[in-house]
Amino acid sequence: MTGAMSRNKGKRADYCEPKTHGHCVGGTSSPTYKSWMMMRTRCNNPHYNKYSNYGGRGISVCESWEKFEAFLDDMGERPEGMTLDRIDVDGDYTPENCRWATLSEQNRNMRHGKRLLFGKNQTLRSAWEANAALGVSLPAVIRRVWRLGCDEELAITTPIMPSGRPRIGENHA
Question: DSSP code of 83?
């Protein structure tokens, strides 16, 4: 191997040698192949800048998915506008725990420092979105919970005063 392909081997997550699966053409990877490579990089490469959020906290790739063809058989082609998402953010990359999701679906499924029990176990963002009709902005909810130490349900359901300050602790009719 010569030229750009030999220089890039092992250095770029999207580098791809020509294979029979057809997802590598001229050293360029398909979106599905890039998703597979990044999944493996997040879990297996301690030098990756976000490794601590994946492999560093015990998230792994199932053994069968170490081969791209098995991943492709289980997940299919990556639909346009979608990315690989783990349904349980604390679970491994497995066929049962992964899906193709939109960016907004992924944002609702992100792991944040705090969780709340709001009818069912949800992220603060998804609980707020379910109650957004109450008119409280997400930044206001986050500020109430993390800066003011408010209960999550109260932070989401307490109206904003006309002055912009929350009426937390007041009785509302």
Answer: E
